[in-house]
Amino acid sequence: MLEMLINPKSAELSPWKMIIIGFVYGLISLALVHWIFSGDAVLSRYSGILVVTFCVMFSLPFMYFAIKNEEEKDIESKWGFIRLFEEHSKAIFYFMCLFVGFLLAFSIGYILFPNGSTYFKAQIETYCMINKPTSFNDCVTNYAGGDVGKTTMFMTAKDKIVNIFVNNIYVLIFTLIFSLIFGAGAIFILAWNASVISAAIGIFAKSNIANLPMGLARYMIHGLPEIASYFAGALAGGIVSVAIINHDVKSEKFWTILQDSLNLIVFAIVLLFIAALIEVFITPIVFKF
After folding, report:
1. What is the domain count for the chain?
2. What's the pLDDT tens digit per position in 175-196?
């Protein structure tokens, strides 16, 4: 029932509803993990993965039908590339709204849930591995205090851009592979990224709800184009996957679908490069820490 609260066609007309849907899915996922697994000595250690898993379960039907809807546009449409890209951008936008809903739910859960950080242990470890690899154990041990301190960086701006861009390309590749193998499967990587960013926001906000808007702004400046690129990649792979499932590979339209997917991938790569530039040159100026 919950997974069918909204369908892709109505989401195109009211994409902002997806923020509410994502928020509801995120909070319910946290609540289920808290009520069902928090008392389990073994499974409670994997709460971060379980929260993401529940979000994926809720979102899979919507993701599948949304991608199927976009694939049908490619097959039936006689539009040019610009018009078709405008149509796909609607899907990317309501996917992003779903992601923002996840992000808000996870961030608020991290801050307001009793011992909220315990539900994001895997995500915090990921954050520490990326931001403080030389003091990983101390970072993981001290995460509850919210002291992010200053990360020592010995890289030039060019090195930072290359490092960030290459890491994000890896995520884009995995997103593309997941969506090719299992049309809507990329939602796992995207929900996981939402949870990791939320943990970073919770740490940055020092577990104080008053600091949440600043934490969201800190990561969304470069995060939005980054996530948009991942959704573009997921859409590209998903469209091809659904076309193969529907045996459209035998039709002439399949080559149009491949070309359209390739254009989406190129667009995703350009967005990732722009996001890397923003993260290196703009975010540190606006948020000094």
Report:
1. 1
2. 888 888 876 677 888 899 899 9
